[in-house]
Amino acid sequence: MNNSLLSTLTVLTLSLLFSSACEDDISNPKPPTFLKVEMSAHSYHLEESAAPFQMEISDLFTFKTSRNCDLTYCEQEIYLGREIDGNINLFYKKVDHIDSLGKLINFSNQEVDFHKIKADKIDYNQVIDKNKKVYGTLFELKGNVATNFQFYLTDSLQNFLRGEVILNCVPNYDSLKSTLNYIKVDLTHMINTFEWLNN
Fold it and tell me: Which of 12, 19, 36, 120 has the CB geometry, 3.0–4.6 Å to 143, for a possible disulfide?
């Protein structure tokens, strides 16, 4: 076999191999891979707000200085740490009249409803602790939404607290799923250890 024919066959063989490899990539696309962040083991410490409540939060989380606080209102931000990079924003309101409690609950529900368009599903868990007089609802919004967790807590008499989790990233539910599952454990612990301080 002469060198010219051998060179031509080699080129044809390589061309066929290359084109079949490209076809495989096109016909069998690989699913996207997402970066998995290794999270620390869950551990907690007690924090007390300038508003009349306390709770146990993750050791990764930090209470920031309360803002706009007076006897009837207070804003508390909880930084979720560098591993997560986000906040839990808390808004405390003193219930001045029994009728205003219904309005506060309706407002909280409307804030959840605002994300219905983008949410694939909304799950909720009711919070009922008669001993500590803590009642409310934790909402989990699944999908590419701006906030995947919202909640409200009340003693049904004089205290009301609304909270939302905001992550500092583009909402991509698939890539955030493991982080959101991690946050849910800490958020549930926070709510389960929540106590009013003026009851």
Answer: 120
In a domain, 36, yes or no: no
How many angstroms separate the CA atoms of 98 and 21, rounded? 70
Q: Does one domain contain both 58 and 140? A: yes
Structurally, the chain folds into a number of domains equal to 2
Which token pair is 184? 């849910």
pLDDT value for 72: 95
Task: Using alpha carbons, list the distances in angstroms from residue 86 to 53, 79, 138.
Answer: 22, 6, 18
Range 174-183 burial, b when 16+ CB lie within 10 A, else e: eebeebbebb
Instruction: Please state, in angstroms and rounded to a whole number, the distance separating the CA atoms of residues 196 and 2.
Output: 92
Query: Which one is predicted more confidently, 97 or 50?
Result: 50
Q: Is the pLDDT of residue 2 over 80?
A: no
- Measured between its terminal Cα atoms, the distance across the chain in Å is 98
What is the residue range of 108's domain?
Answer: 44-196
Residues 186 and 111 in one domain: yes
Give one word for 28, left, alpha or beta, with left for phi > 0 and alpha for psi -120 to 50: beta
- Residue 182 — φ and ψ, nearest 5°? -65, -45
d(CA 123, CA 185): 15
Q: For 133-160, what is each residue's pLDDT tens digit?
A: 999 999 999 999 999 999 999 999 999 9
- 151 or 9: whose pLDDT is higher? 151
